[in-house]
Amino acid sequence: MLEFTLAVCAIVFGLRFITGFFTKASRIYRPTFLRQFYLLFWPLLCMSVGLPFLISFLYLGTLTAYELVLLTALAAVILGFSVPALILHAQYYAHNLHTTLVFDPKQNRLEVYENKELLSFAQRDLVRVEYVTCRSPRLFWSNYNFLRLHLASGQVIVLTSLLTNLAPVAEFLRNSHLETRQRWFCFV
């Protein structure tokens, strides 16, 4: 069964790679499976490798003090690296589940749709743009960042990295009172 699953995954990703050469780059961004897989790969891999060892907690009465200390340290490392990324992913998913971003810098086009309804604004309507990134580039949650667009009407539009890499969008909005901030955890 495992070999069959690996063969199907290899075929799917191989076809996706080959067809990627013949398709035009999309300018429409939504939360997709591949983007979510890209963001969640390392946290899920860490949990899938480490969680089977944590089943040893079920035998708590038979463990020595040394084994208990090692098991607790392993649990702290696994959960400490994976859980923040999973929480950020869930929060970003809740914010941008029904969001569509249309971004084409060559055409000077930036549109945001919420539930298939256009949130209309012009660049002159932007009072302030916050671009929040992770302080450390080596953590599992370092790819999670977000943009907050503060409009003159008081409305705030949140774009998360679940849609796409936001660095080009932030570069596009650099003349719109862009404020770049760094945090350890990029909670919206």
UniProtKB/TrEMBL annotation:
Residue span(s) of domain PH: 29-171
Transmembrane segments: 6-25, 37-59, 65-88
InterPro entries in UniProt: PH_40 (IPR058916)
Highest taxon of the lineage: Bacteria
Keyword Membrane found: yes
Record's keyword terms, sorted: Membrane, Transmembrane, Transmembrane helix
Name of this protein: PH domain-containing protein
Organism: Hymenobacter cellulosilyticus
Organismal lineage: Bacteria, Pseudomonadati, Bacteroidota, Cytophagia, Cytophagales
